[in-house]
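Re-run with default settings, no changes from the original entry. Doing this only to confirm the output is reproducible before filing.
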Amino acid sequence: MSAFTIMVDTSYDLPEQYIKDNGLKIIPIPFHLNGVTHEDGRWKDVSDTEFYNSLSKGGVAGTTLINPEAFEQVFTEYAQRREELLVILLSSGLSGTAQNAELALSEVKEKYPDCKIYPVDGLNAAGGTGLITVLAVEKRAEGLSAKETADWLKEKRHSCLALFTVDDLMYLHRGGRLGKLQAVAGSIIGIKPLLNVAPDGTLKLKDKARGRKAALEKLTGQLTRTLNPGTKLRTVVISHSDCEDDAAKVADLIRESVEVDKILIVMMGPVIGAHVGPGCIAVFFEADMDRPTYEAKFYGGK
């Protein structure tokens, strides 16, 4: 096995045991809830249930960028030890975190020009960050170097699709992730919006369904139409913001529609949960087409 370290920011959704079993390192994206900042970026000081219950009752949550200085400190440590490091980061279409990592790396390279540190803009979030991390772990196990894995991920990320539905688009609007017009248009009573992560890593409202049940079924249909006949999915990650029963229903619908090796159902972390609110279901998987093809085929490239 190639002995490089994989680091991921806390936009990931993966079982904590998976993180431990594969020796993954974490760099936290701080989040705040009702004026209190949580530097760990996960559930150290507040539980997932407390977090989403607070949002349901009108609580206010948000996130803070990892600043370049934090990245520079970490990168310097690896550069001094001459260790290889692959860093998987939240989409640049949703956050400035990936840009800050690149800024920090440029500073570190002035002192350590031969350092082997490779930030990867995942162009994804939540279970998508998780899925890309799983793929990185697999490539490391195959013996690829950190650079080889980073180069491979930069191609593969375009076919890691993200499809999701939310209960209330206004969370995304308040967090600056969706325009007001789209948010209002998708918030009609009884109409459930369906979104995806676009080729540039931003969020786009693409479709609607009448009622939650129809939205979950449509979500599954959107997945199956991206696959060739006979395709077997290896790993599907389903992230949910405190609606595990609905996540289980989507998992059952997927299993009824396609052959799949493994489905991971994970509570959505606070970094993304702060912007989508309670009731989000998101599905992440490797499609048989890339995002530009998906956009062109089903939405006319819009």
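The longest strand covers residues 232-240. The radius of gyration is 19 Å.
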